[in-house]
Amino acid sequence: MSLPDLWFGLVAFFWIGYFVLEGFDFGVGMLLPLIGRSEDDRSQMLETIGPVWDANEVWLIVAGGATFAAFPVWYATLFSGAYVWLVLALLALILRAISFEWGGKSDHRHWGRFWMWANAAGGLLIPLLFGVALSALLKGVPINDQQDFSGSPMDFLSWYSLLAGVAVVGICLVHGAVFLSIRTSGEVRERATVLARRVAPVSALLAIAFVVATLAVAHDTNQASLFPAVVPAALAVIAAVDVVVFTRIGRQGWAFVATAATMGLAILTLFFSLYPRVMVSSSTFANSLTVDNASSAHYTLHVMTVAAAVLTPVVLGYQIWTYWVFRKRLTAPPVPATPAG
Fold first, then answer.
1. For 171-192, how does the pLDDT look when each residue is reduced to its tens digit (9 = 90+)?
2. Beta partners for 281?
3. Which residues lie below 8 Å from residue 139, measured CB to CB, with a gap of 6+?
């Protein structure tokens, strides 16, 4: 395996880690207006992700940094074309981050509701926009013979990229509902369990449609064979069906594993279908960016590989320890007793 191939795999790994770990954070945010009927409910929901959401954001930073350093041509072409959508995603990330810090700074009812809706909007927009942007790499955008983007931001929108964005949002929603059913108690847990059971079939259908469409688009636009992408696609279909089964029979722990697997395998299918290209050209296929013509020099990749071999286990170890420390279920605050008489 060459170093460009290795780093393409690492970029895919970082994106998968981001969507799987941050996915339930997004889901919890989207569910704040639906499940949180009171300030106590919403506080309990936010406490489930409070210790981990910012650590999960590290995966996005690493994915972006790895793309910039390992594939500077890919990074430059992607950002020059999708700058509108990426700036919107950045604004949603900022607004969502502020909501965690400022949401409880005032007891005023409108203050808290504003930041609740800001968190929910961020939880919806971020996976939608990233899903659209990443899937457009496979569907194809205009690239000239100088490896420059030659279209408009609207070229990133297609039936397939919109399906991908909506599917990622759907998976995040049920991922967050199942997570809440594991980490909370009382009425919040009951509502999350019921909602997960109701949303799971729709989410599963969207996920299945996404992976099947990915294989079809890869064959049409990227001249890719079904193998090996069909393997994670088939496993994603099985995992999506498992989500429906486990939520229906009340096995929330296994349901969470299944939602995580569905998300990870769906994104893996996308990257498998994209390889050996990193950005398909819709104008002239020969202008497509590949792992070879978009990568950095061998020495740069060698130094990055050594650094990644040292630092990646540290990041993984830290996150595993964080989740272990905050593994216990949160209990609902006691209901005040009604005075007699």
1. 999 999 999 999 998 999 999 9
2. 141
3. 158, 160, 161, 217, 221, 280, 282
